[in-house]
Amino acid sequence: MVITIIGVLAGIAIPVFMHQRAKAMDAAIQADIKAAAVHVIALQTGDQPVTKQALIAAGLRTSPGVSVSIRNDSSGAYCILGSSSGGRPSSHDWVYWTNGGFASGQTSCPGDIVVSLP
Fold first, then answer.
1. Which string of b and e fits 48-69 if b means at least 16 CB within 10 Å?
2. How many CB atoms lie within 10 A of CB 3?
């Protein structure tokens, strides 16, 4: 009887725990994307090229398990794609435009990769 109760509780708790981990990863991805956007805009404002070295020198770091790639499209706006890496769960990839914010439903960025961070 006790083993059955423990089994039922574990059956409920494990999926809830996995969902919470995915939500935490989503929050980390979004925070890293927003930080990258602030750094990219700061470099643009100062007429400096957006390079990996410039972003790292400005203090941009990504959270463990988060991958960020920055692409430049033909309009001059930057598209920032954030995703989980290393098998960590997240609900989906996140896309952020420096001229418009998060793009709902978009899962990829057009243009050439300018910077890719782990």
1. eebeeebbeeeebebbebbbbb
2. 7
For the stretch 1-52, pLDDT in tens is 788 877 777 777 777 677 788 889 999 999 999 999 999 999 999 889 999 9
The span from the CA of 109 to the CA of 113, in Å, is 9
Q: What are the φ and ψ backbone dihedral angles of 65, each rounded to 5 degrees?
A: 85, 5
Question: What's the CA gap between 48 and 39, in Å, rounded?
Answer: 11
1-12 pLDDT, tens digit each: 788 877 777 777
> pTM for this structure?
0.83
Residue matched to tokens 């708790």: 13
Q: Is 16 exposed, middle or buried (0-12, 13-18, 19+ CB in 10 A)?
A: exposed
Backbone angles phi, psi at 99, to 5 degrees: -105, 15
